[in-house]
Amino acid sequence: MKLLVIEDNTETAAYIAKGLTELGHVVDHAADGRDGFFLVGASRYDVAIVDRMLPSRDDLSLVKKLREDGVGIPILFFTNLGGIDDRVEGLDSGGDYLDKPFAFSELLARINALARRLAICTTETLLRCGNLEIDHLKRTVTRGGRPIDLQPREFTVLECLMRDAGTVVTRAMLLEMVWQFNFDPKTNIVEIHVSRLPSKLDQSFGTELIHTVRGSGYVLRAQE
Amino acid sequence: MCFVRKSRILRSTVFRLAATYVVLFAISVLALGFVAYFAISMTLIHTVDAHIEDARTALQDDYRSGGLSRLLVQVNARLKDHRSNALLYLVLDPNGMTLAGQLPIIPKRSGWSYSDYIEKETDNDVGSLRILLTPLAGGVRLAVGADLEQVEDAKDAVANSLLSAFFAVVLFGTFGGIALSLALLRRVDTIRLAAGAISEGDLSKRVPLRGNDDDLDRLSRTLNHMLDRIAGLMESVRQVSADIAHDLKTPLARLRQRLEAAERTSRSAEDYNTAIDTAVGNVDEILATFSALLRIAQIEARTRRAGFRDVDLSNIVTTVVEAFVPAAEDAGQSLATDISDDVHVFGDSELLTQMIANLVENAIRHTPAGTRIAVKLRSDESGVEASIIDNGLGVPESERLRLFQKFYRLEHSRSTPGSGLGLSLVKAIADLHDIAIEVQNRKPGLAIVLAFASGPVRLPG
């Protein structure tokens, strides 16, 4: 992927760039909003990672400008610790937030999710992974043609994992998407909910679909 | 000093008010005086006129019945009457010759007239006469007059007393105003001195009260309330700083020890990885504490109110409970609900979600296995009420009111992880939404009742 990091703190920017480059991504760095805006205009990026306290050009007007110019680039916004007031009005489906300081695995998962969300058509009703199929409209799940009975919340958890099948979905992302929790409860409710899925999905199939990524989250992957 | 004091009185609000009032009052007294003066003058003249007319009518009748001789007899008889309010008479023949009586001035036209004359026998005083000249049959003319000296005296007396009253008003008003200003200035000065002392840093100082519950007393009481609040805030800031120092120092010190120990004892890459993972976990805990503190501060700044909108509280509570049901089951507890449908409130859905989640989570984490927890939401005319009820350990009565303080944790929950900020966050969110929180000891167990002040939002249609 080609990524743009707009971040004025050079140490943080270098840390992000190094981590992402090691994973094979191409990373450009802009130290302020104006440079960032020129870079976005010059070449095509999959995701822009934007810090909330940028000098020179207010990050809000940067987002607005990027949106107005029809550059539908997904933006990952850094918000400050506990930053409930940092949410940007009008940052629609093409954007996500991440509290700073963050875990690198969280950053990576969100970048992947943003890039994928742009790539696949979001209105797709039928999702498939191996022999597991879910119908978003009818809200039905089948594996190998056999229907599986899930509770509504379990269905939503599975749907989130399916949409980003193959990439890691973190606990925080699941909390936001399934329960609209923009905070981290002390109880491991995500683990408890996800741990109930395999018994329903994998019964008599033998192969596991949901894999836990230690210290980060979950990935839905069909073993070939 | 004296000059300063004088100029302060002149500049004081109450003195200016008093001065304005004195001027307005003086103008009214003056206007009233003029009206009274003219009304009294008119009445006096009318009395004189009536008196003259009565005499004229009687003499006219005499002339008609007894002719000129009878008229002259009657006039001469009346002239001998030397009562103080005696009238003046004059009878003229058709040629203008005086037949009887005397007037200092002879009017030319018939009817009413005023005439001024010089009193020769006294000190050339100007006298004033009211005269009624009546033509009688046969060319004879009868003049009846009255000296207006008494009337003028009466008018002068009225004018004098009104003027005295006017000066008295001005005098009393001015001195009263100064006295009032001084009294008020003295009280304002006590407030000012108290406020000055507080600005200088003596937060224990309070404005003295008189105890008569007048407006200054009430103002002082409001000021004292404000000062109590400020002192309370200062105290809580001091408390929180101390708590932060303590609650963050402990995990940081532990982290440092672990890192040092890892450096000394680790033999393999695996050892190092384990140490780093533990350290990252510790740092995350510290960051979570920071995050909660910053969140509370942001919520307390009340800027979030601008983003308030209609929120489906039934939906929020249901989602939160659903999220925690498996956790409760794993902990051997039951989580029951009694949630009315379509309860809407005006608020911030993200924060309300966190508030309910913190309360439910708190009930699960601080009660033993086997506890029954119930979450209720209902809406009626009296408002929206949500409650989280358990039959667990409850809290000691003495600790009940301290539950929502920052970093407050019961002794027995010191062992379970957590920042002690969960309920403070709940309190901050509740305050932002004007929600009253009531903590009830149910023996056994605890009920936390949230009463929404905003009331239910009625959906159009």
Describe it.
The complex is a heterodimer of chains A (224) and B (461). Chain A is α/β, with parallel strands linked by helices and 224 residues long. Chain A has two domains: 2-119, Response regulator (Rossmann fold, 3-Layer(aba) Sandwich), CATH 3.40.50.2300; 126-220, Orthogonal Bundle (Arc Repressor Mutant, subunit A), CATH 1.10.10. Chain A has helices spanning 10-22, 33-42, 59-68, 104-119, 152-163, 171-179, 189-195, 197-201; strands spanning 2-6, 26-30, 47-51, 75-80, 95-100, 126-129, 132-135, 140-143, 146-148, 169-170, 210-213, 217-220. In chain A, the strands form three sheets. Chain A has a five-stranded parallel β-sheet. The mean pLDDT of chain A is 81. Chain B folds into three domains: 2-156, Beta-Lactamase, CATH 3.30.450; 215-300, Orthogonal Bundle (Helix Hairpins); 304-452, Histidine kinase-like ATPase, C-terminal domain (Heat Shock Protein 90), CATH 3.30.565.10. Helices cover 56% and strands 17% of the residues of chain B. In chain B, the strands form three sheets. A five-stranded antiparallel β-sheet of chain B has the order 2-1-5-4-3. The longest helix of chain B is centred in the first third of the chain and has 68 residues, at 13-80. Chain B is rod-shaped, with a radius of gyration of 49 Å. Residues 411-416 of chain B have low confidence and may be disordered.
